[in-house]
Amino acid sequence: MRAFPKLQSFCEVARDAGYCWAWMDTCCIDKRSNTEVQESVNSTFVWYHHSALTIVYLCDVSPSSQLGALARSVWNERGWTFQEFVAPEVVIFYRKDWSLYLDDRSPNHKESPAIMKELKDATGIDARTLVTFRPDVAYALFGIFGISLPVIYGEKKQNALGRLLQEIVARSGDITVLDWIGEPSEFNSCLPAHITSYTTPPRTLSPLSEDYIHTQVSSLRQTVHTDLALKLYDQLQQLRAPRFANCRLQLPCISFRVTEVRRRRGLAQETPITYRIKADGLHNLLITTEKTLVQFSRARLIQQTFLLVRPWDRHLLGVPDFAEQSHFADDIESIGDWTEPGSPIDDSDKLLGGSSVKEEPGSRALRLMARLGQPYDAFLLAQQRIGEYKRIASDYKIIAQVKDIASVDNMDVAMLSLLALEVNTAANKHRLSPRGLYLTEASVWMALAVFDIPKVAPDVG
Questions:
Q1: In three state form, how does the secondary structure of the chain look?
Q2: pLDDT tens digit sequence for 427-447
């Protein structure tokens, strides 16, 4: 019953403002139900964003308070979240006696210079950011991909995007989200900071003709020992799918050690910078990046390791992925139409796509090598610690190609760990809690939303 006077005063304020319907989290969420609490926390951002008016009641701010009381309020320390202030269009603050904070009668306290300056000083967040915030595009994509992730207070857009992409890779194993150009994310160096980095269409190669592959296989039989080809095939076949959790990506790949990095001659201060890169087993190539790289060569080595890697795509094995054929059974005729094995028209030894199930292992391994000989999109990685790397973003696609596909020894099959960029963690020490919405006692504060529903209440009799 302690909340009843608040509810009554809130309804009076809502009525005086011309509204007939209102919602208050103090009594509209059953905090005894974990399921309802979680559902409400996931939904309140949308509720507040679509409210006609959001009222914030400051129970510890006295009627005689002066400028600065809001910054010192317990609400400001414990209860301010996206839902309460950032999401709504219109917010009004009320003091303990339900009088307007600072007697400010403006229709929206988010447009009050004095109040916004006070919030800016209290939070360290630019006032324009607080006022002009719109739901990040990454949050909108959560629903499109069928992913349910929490909205985190104070989260940067690139971190929200990072969490989305991390979940996509974790669920599907699809690494096409790594195909981007632009600024790397603080969340993980293999992801972009902005979704606009995907505006460049992915590069697609024309499929190799069967005649070309047959010619390549015939040539490789003369230059590659079958055992080496089979060993490479087995190593790639046994690679696990990519794993992505806690901002760390475990990426299956074929790596080539970089042996030389030299800056191309040009203006000393020009950016981005173009470097000539040499790597064991690859043709020389150029990389343009905003990052300043340490120059080295075989004659002048450094301790840090750089790699050019080819993210592993299991489709190159040339075998069907039955996980992608969930509707395969729907396309099969009834059992009465099946042909007995061994009959003249039996095609049971054929895989989808026409390749034979009984294909000789050596041929299958050589066909893989023919595919690996084609140009591919590469990543440049810089070692951070033993076994841990970060991606060096480039301004253009890095197109690499092996010099001699017969040189199997230059290919290192590995599962590499890719990390986030080095970031300043001072922001993580912010004194405002993202949990205040559902952990703070109702007696301390409450945020209330009024919805712009028709002024006449419906007849429910």
A1: CCCHHHHHHHHHHHHHCCCCCEEEHHHHCCCCCHHHHHHHHHHHHHHHHCCCEEEEEECCCCCCCCCCHHHHCHHHHHHCCHHHHHCCCCEEEECCCCCEHHHCCCCCHHHCHHHHHHHHHHHCCCHHHHHHCCCCHHHHHHHHCCCCCCCCCCCCHHHHHHHHHHHHHHHHCCCHHHCCCCCECCCCCCCECCHHHHCCCCCCCCCCCHHHHHHHHHHHHHHCCHHHHHHHHHHHHCCCCCEEECCEEEEEEEEEEEEEEEECCCCCCCCCEEEEEEECCECCEEEEECCCCCCEECCECCCCCEEEEEECCHHHHCCCCHHHCCCCHHHCCCHHHCCCCCCCCCCCCECCCCCECCCCHHHHHHHHHHHHCCCEECEEEEEEECCEEEEECCCCCCEECECCCCCHHHCEEEEEEECCCCCCHHHHHCCCCCCHHHHCCCCCEEEEEECCCCCCCCCCC
A2: 333 333 332 222 222 323 344
